[in-house]
Amino acid sequence: MARQIRAILFDLDGTLVQTRDASWALFERTNKKFALGIDDREQFFKLFRDNLFVAVPQACGDQERGVAAIDHFLELLRKEYNPPLVPGIADVVRTLAARCVLGIVSSNALEAIRRIADDARIAQCIAHVFAGDIEPDKRKSIRQFLADPSYATLRIGSPAYQERTPKPFEPDEVAVVTDTVCDVRHARECGVRTLGVSWGMHKASELMEAGAEKVAVWPQEIISWALPPPQSDTVEERAGDVEPPPQTDLEPVLEKSAVRRLKGLRAE
Fold first, then answer.
1. For residue 243, is it within any domain?
2. For every residue of 126-145, which 3-state class applies, written as one string?
3. Domains held by the chain: number
4. Are residue 99 and residue 207 in the same domain, yes or no?
5. What is the pLDDT along the chain (268 residues), one digit of tens a residue?
6. Same domain, 207 and 246
7. How buried is residue 120: exposed, middle or buried, by Cβ count under 10 Å (0-12/13-18/19+)?
8. Looking at the structure, do residues 72 and 122 belong to the same domain, yes or no?
9. Cross-strand pairs, 217
10. Strand partners, 16
11. 195 has which bridge partners?
12. Are 94 and 64 found together in one domain?
């Protein structure tokens, strides 16, 4: 049986933010500049079946041109990318931050991630960020997160991290939440759990086929999947555990008053 989830690593594009239009609008400019042959949005989304930093050079058949194209695209992301958050996802992040260590692991540029998180006022709910312009391979970032116990530290909506001795993560205490097939596969390679989301680049059926445990249709499902359910005790069982309130000096007076009222009603 899997352990309780203690940490969640969110993908950014298509998971936390709406990217189907915003990312393609920028990549389309890169495609035209470098003549990559990735001429529509669906072809662009297919790149994310693999690591983007590998897929672009392979798609254009020229390693040097592909790397230059990625650099151009990352610069556009740094300067211009600012899509809206998925509706309701900010509340999900704030709710989870009180119980789980939250991180972002993304192919996007760190500057763009920071801008988006600041604008959404969730930056201080995110304990750690692993950006693509620093480490292109998400598997390395996930393994780094698992290997260093200091990452197991909550950050609950404030600049400071909790000052407690962290307990290292076991792989099945960590989950990746994502919208892409490649992320699901790479997370499973690292031994961590995976939840897909249906509102991003890849279809729910594709995410399940890649190995996602479940695919969320609504953001709130992330909370119900990650956090333990409420106690199932019945009302009667809980009531039996409650001690009666202590007797007060007023109770004998109130009891006599009630008896007098009852006698008066009988006399009438």
1. yes
2. CCEEECCCCCCCHHHHHHHH
3. 3
4. yes
5. 678 999 999 999 999 999 989 999 999 999 999 999 999 999 999 999 999 999 999 999 999 999 999 999 999 999 999 999 999 999 999 999 999 999 999 999 999 999 999 999 999 999 999 999 999 999 999 999 999 999 999 999 889 998 888 899 999 999 999 999 999 999 999 999 999 999 999 999 999 999 999 999 999 999 999 987 765 554 444 444 444 444 444 444 444 544 454 455 445 5
6. no
7. middle
8. no
9. none
10. none
11. 177, 214
12. no
Integer CA distances (angstroms), 127 to 10, 103, 116, 142, in order: 11, 6, 15, 14
> Which amino acid is it at 102?
L
Query: CA-CA distance, 88 to 75, in Å (whole number)?
Result: 29
The range of the structural domain enclosing residue 45 comes to 22-80
Whether residue 2 is contained in a domain is answered as no
Count CB atoms within 10 A of the CB of residue 214: 17
The burial of 221, by beta-carbon neighbours within 10 Å (0-12 exposed, 13-18 middle, 19 or more buried), is given as middle
Q: Are residues 31 and 118 in the same domain?
A: no
Nearest to 22 by CA among 198, 181, 178, 201: 201
Rounded to whole angstroms, the Cα distance separating 149 from 165 reads 9
196 within 8 A of 214, measured Cβ to Cβ: yes
Instruction: List residues bridging with 85 in a β-sheet.
Output: 17
Q: How far is CA 237 from CA 4, 23, 244, in A?
A: 25, 53, 15
**Alpha helices per DSSP H over 81-178:** 89-97, 110-120, 138-147
Edge to edge, the sheet with strand 101-105 lists 128-130, 101-105, 7-10, 174-178, 193-197, 214-216
Helix (H, G, I), strand (E, B) or coil at 217: coil
| C-beta atoms surrounding 246 within 10 Å | 6
Contact (CB, 8 A) for 113 and 102? no
